Amino acid sequence: MGSDSDSSTSADDSAADNADPNPNSTLIDQNLDAIEDQLASIVLAQPNDIEDSSSEQEVFKDAPNGSLLDEDNQQEIGGGEIVGDEVEVVSSSIGVVWRSSELEVDQPSSPSSSGYAGERGSSGATSASEIEEAGGDRIREVGRDDSFDGVSDSQAPWVPGKRHADEDDASVSWRKRKKHFFILSHSGKPIYSRYGDEHKLAGFSATLQAIISFVENGGDHVKLVRAGKHQVVFLVKGPIYLVCISCTGEPYESLRGQLELIYGQMILILTKSVNRCFEKNPKFDMTPLLGGTDVVFSSLIHSFSWNPATFLHAYTCLPLAYATRQAAGAILHDVADSGVLFAILMCKHKVVSLVGAQKASLHPDDVLLLSNFVMSSESFRTSESFSPICLPRYNPMAFLYAYVHYLDVDTYLMLLTTSSDAFYHLKDCRIRIEMVLLKSNVLSEVQRSMLDGGMRVEDLSVDPSPRSGSSSPHLGQSRLATDSLDRFQEAFVGIGGPAGLWHFIYRSIYLDQYASSEFSSPINSLQQQKRLYRAYQKLYASMHDKGNGPHKTQFRRDENYVLLCWVTQDFELYAAFDPLADKALAIKTCNRVCQWVKDVENEIFLLGASPFSW
Amino acid sequence: MGLSSVTTGSDATKFCIFDLRRGQHEGEELDKILFFYPADLPFSTQLSVIGLSEGLITFTRIFSPEAACEVIEAEGHSHVFYEAEPDVWMVMIVEKSKESEAIWRIDALRRVLKEVHSLFMMFHGSIRALLDKEPSGGLVRSHLYTFIMDYLSDFLVGKKLQLPNFRDSLKERGTVQMLTIGREAAIEVQEDTINLFTYAVLRFSPRALSSGLSSWSYLRKGNVSSHAATGSVSANSGAVLDQFYRSSGGDPSYHIARPLQQDKWTKGKDGFLVSDIWKAEAGSSAATTPTIWLQKTEEKVFLCTFQHRNLTLILLFPVISLLNEEQGISLVKQQVLENASLKIVKVEEKLSKGWGGENAYHVSGCRYLLVDGDRNVSRASPPTKVTTLTKESLVALNKLREEVDLEKSRAKSDSPDSDKDMEICIRAKNNAWVIARFTRGKELYMVLEKANETLLYASDTVENFSNRYCNGLFSLD
Questions:
Q1: How far apart are CA A595 and CA A597, in angstroms?
Q2: A294 within 8 A of A423, measured Cβ to Cβ
Q3: Which of A430, A450, A470 finishes a domain?
Q4: CA nearest A573: which of A560, A586, A585, A584?
Q5: Interface of A with B in 19-48 (CB under 8 A)
Q6: The CA-based dihedral angle spanning residues A552, A555, A561, A566, taken in that order and rounded to the nearest 10 degrees
Q7: Which of the residues A478, A522, A546, B381 could staple to A468 if both were Cys, CB 3.0 to 4.6 A apart?
Q8: Contacts with B5 from chain A: Cβ below 8 Å
Q9: Would the CB atoms of A44 and B410 count as touching at under 8 Å?
Q10: Range of the domain at A30
C-alpha cells in the first residue's frame, strides 16, 4: 500500500510512463476497456453510473493527506491520532524495516523495476527464468503445485512483505501468479493488491468494481466466476470489496473464508467505523490509512498455505505440562481482574495461555488475526508497544488497546484493554507476569516445548493395550520396550506412523482448539506440507457443506493420500495416510489417535479457559 | 435495469445464444443476439444479460486465455456458459429459488447446452455456416428459434422449464444406455451416434409415437407431461418472433423444418417411420426423406428409420450416393424388407425375451450410475428405483458429483493423458453412504441407504458391485 508513493500519479500516467515489460499490454488495456464498455454501454438506462465510479482520472485526487503514517513511526504510546474529519482511525504502530538487509533475498532483476519497487525493499526479485516467491505460490510456468523435488528452494524461510511491486495487470508474470488478492473500495479505488503496485492497478480495480456493481444493480450478488482452472471469488463488505483470483484448486468456501480473514485483518487495523468515511465521501482513498501494513497482509496470506487455524476456526496450544500451563493461567487471571480485558501469552502462533475478564471470550479468528498482526510487525519485537487494535469478532466497531511485549524471541504477552491510557498500568502488569513466569520456569518450559515439538505419528503405539495413565515425556504413548526397536527402524525408513499414518489434526469442538501432529517423513518439504494442507482444506470444505453438512465420515483416496475424516459432536479428526494404506488398518489407527489425544489432552489443550471453571 | 427486471419474466430460466463477432459497434448491439429465451423480454434486458456474459468472457481471458468463463455463481442465479462454436456462446441462467428443487449441477446443465447444439448441427449444420450463408442473421435466428423452442418443450412442466436437477444425479446426458450385448456386436459410440440415439429416444421411441406399446426402460423418454404445454410457448412469444426473429431477415417466410416438433412421426404400413416435417422445406406435397449432417465426416446423409415393435433400426446413406432420391430410397426400403425384416423380427423376439424388463439393471441394496467416458456409454439403476432415495441422499450425491466434476476437469487440464484415479466415500448426515469412484476414464456413483455404518461395509459393497458388473474395474487389486 503505497503511502510512500507519489499520490498524485494517476493510473493512466503510470502505466504509460513505465518501461513496459510486456508487449501485450496494449491488448490487455483494450481488454479492460472492452469489459467496461460491455458492462457499461450495454446497460441502456443503468441508474447507477458505472462510468463515473470507475473513472480512473480521479483515483488519487482526494487522498486526505498522503503522509499520514510515516514509515519511521516505530511505535507510539497512547492511542490514536484522529484521521479524516470524523472517524477515529488510528494509525497502526507498525514500523516496517523496509531495508533490513537480511530480508532482501536478491537484487531486483526485472528491467522494469521502478525506483518505487526498490524503495519498498521489494524482496520479490527473482531469476529471470523462474518467477516465484519463497514459500508462496509459484506461477504456473514454473510447474504444477505438486511438481516439487524434495529439496527445492522453497525450503528457504518465507520472507514477509510485498512481492513483485513492479508488476501490474499489463505484465505477463502478474497475470500468471497463482493467487491474487485484492481489496478495493466500492468506487473502484484499489486499497490492497498482493502482487503489483496498487496505483498502477487502478484500471483493473475499476473493472472488478464494474463487475460487482453490474450484478448488484441487477438485484443479485456475484459470488464466484469459474474459468478453466481459475476461480474469481468476490466478497462484498459494505463499501469494501474483496476479490481473490486463484488457480490453486482450493474450494470456493475456503477462498471465501480467506477473504473474510483478510477483511477481518483490515478491521483489526482500522475498525469497521472506516465505513463512515465512505458514507461521507464515496471516493475516499483508504490506502494511506493502511500504509506500511503490507507485511501484515502478506503474512496472513502466507498463513493460508500452512496454518490450519485459517480454515478450522480454532487455535492451537503449545504442548505443556498441565501444571505449567496452570501456573501461567493463574498469573494472567490475576491481571485480568485489574481491568485487563484479555491477557494472552503466545509462542509464535501457539497459545500458552489466555484469560478473558468476566464473560469476555475470544474468537479463534481474533486470536489468529491478532497474533498475525503482532508477529508480522517488526516493531513489536524491538520494544514494548501500546497499539490500538480492533477484534473484529469481539466488537468490529471499537478499538481496544493492546500492550505487547516479547518475553523472549518467540514468546510474547498481549494485554488488551478498553482504556487508551492504561499503558503504565499494563506495563506494571507485564512486569509482574514476567517475574512469575520466570520464577515458575514457565518460560524455560515453553522454550523446551518448542524444541521438543508436539505429537509425532511415529510415537503412536501399535499396541492398543491400555496405557499407564500418566503420559510419557514428549507426549509419546507409553509402550513396551520391545516396541521401540520396531519404531526406531520405522522412523528410519521414513514411512511415518503405524498403518502408513503420515499426519493428523484433531479439533475439539467445545474448546475451539486443535492439535496436529508434527510433520514427519515423508511430508518433509514445505511444498509437500502445503499440498497436504490444501488437501485437508478441501476435505474440510467437503465435510462442512453448507446445505447438506456436516457429513459424518469421509474416506478419500487419490494418487497422493488416503484421507480420513470423522466428525462427531465433540471432535473432528482429519488424518492423512500413505495412498496405499489399508482401509481397515487406517480406521483402527484413527481410533487409536483419538484415544491418544484424550490421554494427553491436559497437555495439548488449554482446559478451563473460562476463569470461572477453576 | 439489469437482472432484476430480467427476473420479472414469467420464467426463471433464461437462455441465450450470441456471436462475439457481431454487433461490436455502438448502435448495432442487437446484431449479436441470435437467440433469447424468453423471447418477449425487452431488448435492453436481453442486451444486459449478454453484456455481462461478454464482459466476463473478456475478463477471464486475462488470466485464463485457454478457457474463458464457464460459470458465474451469484446468490440468486447460476449462469452456465458454453462456447458452442468459436465465438458463438450459449449461456443459460437458472434461478436458485428458495423452492427446494432448484439444486443443480453445473456440468449437467452444460450438457443440456451441448446436446441442443449437437442436435441442431445434425439437422441444420453449424451456426457459423448459417450466418455466413445469410449475414443479416435472419436465417440462423429463425432456425435456432424454432429448433430450440421445440427442444425446450420437452422440459416444460406447466409453464416452467424444469431442467435436470439433483434428482437426475444418477443419470448422464450425452451417453448411450446400452443393452448388455457382446462387445463385438456393440457399435462404437461417437458424437453422431449419441445424437441419433438422443433423437431416436426423444421422437422415435414407442411412447413418443404413441403406439401404446410398452417400451424398454433403457430408452430415455421425452417428458410426456409436456405435450400439452407446447402450444403456449409459441403463443407467448409470437409477436416478438415476427418482429425480430423473422422480419429482420427481410424474408418473412423461411421454410424451416422442425425435426424436434412433437408427435410428427408415425409408423407407415411398411414399418418405416414417416413424417411430414420435411414436406414444407421441399415445397412439394410428397413427404421427403429427411437428411442430417454427420459431424465426423461432415457428410449429408439420408435418415431412414424402420421400426418393429421395440426395435428401432436407423439407416443412413450419403445423399451423393443416390442419383434419384425417390427411386433410391424406395429401393433401399424394399431391400430391407426383403432381406432383413425376418431377421429383425427374430432379433426383436430374442431381445424381448431376454430382456429383464424395467428392473433388468436393478442391483438390490444400492442405487448406482456407471459411466464409461471413453465409450460414451452408461448404465444406471432404473429411474423408478432412484425415486425411492431421500432428497438428502440425492442432494449429497449431487454435491459430490460437482466435486468430482471439478477434479476431473482439473486433472484433464493438468495432464490430458493421465488417468485420474480417486475414491470418495461419504457418510452423510442422514446416514446414507454416498460414493464416487473414478478410474481409467470410468466413473461409478453409488448411494447406499439404510446401510451398515462402517466404512468397510460401504467399500465391500462397491467391491462386490465392481467384481460382478465391471470386471473388477473398481476393485482394489
A1: 5
A2: no
A3: A450
A4: A586
A5: 28, 31-32, 34-36, 38-39, 41-47
A6: 30
A7: A478
A8: 218
A9: no
A10: 11-306
Q: In order along chain B (477 residues), what is the average pLDDT of each group of 10 residues?
A: 37 90 90 94 93 96 94 96 97 85 92 96 95 93 94 86 91 81 60 83 63 34 33 37 45 72 82 78 61 87 86 84 81 87 85 74 90 87 92 95 92 78 94 93 92 86 87 74
**Which residue is associated with the grid cell 493467487?**
A179
Report how far residue A70's alpha carbon sits from residue A95's, in angstroms, rounded to the nearest whole number: 9
Coil, strand, or helix at residue B446? strand
CB contact under 8 A, B58 and A35: yes
**Inter-residue contact B174 to B111 (CB < 8 Å):** yes
Instruction: Identify the CA nearest to B381 among candidates B432, B423, B444.
Output: B444
Task: Give me the number of domains chain A comprises.
Answer: 3
- The verdict on A399 and A338 lying in the same domain is yes
Whether chain A has a CB inside 8 Å of the CB on B308: the answer is no
**Is residue A344 helix, strand or coil?**
strand
Asked if the C-beta of A206 comes within 8 angstroms of chain B's C-beta atoms, the answer is no
Residue whose entry in the numeric block shows the C-alpha cell 504456473 = A140
Rg over CA atoms, chain A: 25
Whether A326 contacts chain B with CB within 8 A: no
Beta-carbon contacts below 8 Å between A and B: 200
Instruction: Inform me whether the C-beta atom of residue A249 falls under 8 Å from chain B C-beta atoms.
Output: yes
The domain that holds A109 is classified in CATH as 3.30.450.70
Q: Which of A450, A481, A511 is the last residue of a domain?
A: A450
> Strand, coil or helix: what is A215?
helix
B73 touching A, CB under 8 A?
yes
Contact call for B64 and A229, based on CB within 8 A: yes
Chain B residues in contact with A254 by the CB 8 A cut-off are none
Grid cell, residue B96, equals 436458485
Query: Which amino acid does the sequence have at B312?
Result: T
Tell me if B426 and A554 make a contact (CB, 8 A cut-off). Answer: yes
What is the crossing angle of helices B138-152 and B106-124, to 10°?
130
How far apart, in whole angstroms, are the C-alpha atoms of residue A321 and residue A315?
Answer: 18
B410 vs A221, A249, A554: nearest CB:
A249
- Judged by a CB distance cut-off of 8 A, whether residue A172 touches chain B is no
Shortest Cα–Cα distance, B77 to chain A (Å): 8
Tell whether A479 and A374 lie within a shared domain: no
pLDDT tens sequence across B218-235 = 333 333 333 333 333 333
Q: Do A43 and B424 touch (CB under 8 A)?
A: no
Check if A546 contacts B (Cβ < 8 Å).
no
pLDDT tens-digit map of A350-378: 999 999 887 778 999 999 999 999 999 98
Does residue A226 sit at the B interface (CB-CB below 8 Å)?
A: yes
Nearest residue of A to residue B396, measured between CA atoms: A548
Give the C-alpha separation, A165 to A118, whole Å: 9
Domains and CATH numbers, chain B: 3-171+220-257 (3.30.450.30), 367-469 (3.30.450)
Q: Is B67 on the interface with A (CB under 8 A)?
A: yes
* CB atoms B413 and A547 under 8 Å: no
Handedness of CA B133, B135, B139, B144 (dihedral sign): positive
In this prediction the ipTM stands at 0.87
- Please tell me whether residue B153 adopts helix, strand or coil conformation: helix
Beta bridge partners of B369: B380, B445
Rounded Cα distance between B281 and A493, Å, is 77
| Helix runs in A440-582, H state only | 442-452, 481-493, 526-543
Please indicate if any CB of chain A lies within 8 Å of the CB of B61. yes
Distance (Å) from the alpha carbon of A504 to chain B's nearest alpha carbon: 18
Tell me whether A542 touches chain B (CB under 8 Å).
yes
- Nearest-5° angle of CA A296, CA A298, CA A301? 110
Q: Are strands A553-557 and B422-427 parallel, antiparallel or unpaired?
A: antiparallel
